[in-house]
Specification:
- It is built from six helices and eight strands.
- With about 210 residues, the chain is α/β, with parallel strands linked by helices.
- The chain has one domain: NAD(P)-binding Rossmann-like Domain (Rossmann fold), CATH 3.40.50.
- α1 crosses α2.
Length: about 210
């Protein structure tokens, strides 16, 4: 663990959860969201959640020990060791964000995507340094779900994948490695069950 902050872009359920586990693990966390006030509201939610857990004796840290800060724009993430995006599942949006991040972060900063299905290869296309982009797929709710998938694209450096895995393990997660196959591991296995349940529910409505 270094003193460099962790950046989280996108403060919906996934981004807020990722920020929470990072902060509880002792990292300084910078939160960014394109919606006005969303990052500030996320810091409040995280603090309240940890406060509630601490009151029940279920948090290893007190809420006042958390280091969370909402930032106004991408330039504020310049000093991060890793930036994890958890924005909408739209390839163009993610590519645009990573291109913007690449212009401001340092050369050793890892760019990670929480996408549940989009390929790191596709997201890294067009970057000057595609080798530092890796998939880092957490599951919802992030503070409770232990599994994290580390997904390497065709250009992802093995050292970057290892660094992402070490980061997740440091936050108390269990890591599995995946190639950039459609839906990765967990969702690829689960989707046939979802489809079967959907098929049966559709059939039952006929009677």
């Amino acid at each position: 663990m270094t003193d460099a902050p962790v950046g989280v872009v996108g403060t919906g359920a996934m981004g807020t959860g990722i920020a929470q586990v990072a902060a509880v693990a002792g990292r300084r966390v910078l939160l960014l969201d394109s919606a006005d006030g969303a990052a500030e509201r996320a810091t409040t939610r995280i603090t309240e959640q940890v406060e509630a857990l601490a009151a029940k004796g279920r948090s290893p840290v007190a809420p006042d020990a958390l280091s969370l800060r909402a930032v106004p724009d991408v330039s504020a993430l310049a000093g991060c060791e890793v930036v994890i995006e958890a924005v909408t599942e739209d390839l163009a949006a993610k590519k645009s964000l990573f291109a913007e991040l690449e212009r401001v972060v340092g050369p050793d900063c890892v760019l990670a995507s929480n996408s549940s299905s989009l390929s790191p290869t596709a997201m890294a296309a067009g970057l000057a340094h595609p080798e530092r982009l890796v998939g880092l797929h957490f599951f919802n709710p992030v503070p409770r779900m232990e599994l994290v998938e580390v997904i390497s694209g065709l250009a992802t450096s093995p050292a970057v994948a290892s660094q992402a895995a070490a980061l997740a393990r440091g936050w108390g997660k269990t890591v599995v490695f995946s190639a950039a196959t459609p839906a990765f591991i967990v969702n690829r296995i689960a989707r046939p069950y979802y489809a079967e349940a959907w098929r049966r529910s559709r059939s039952s409505t006929r009677y």
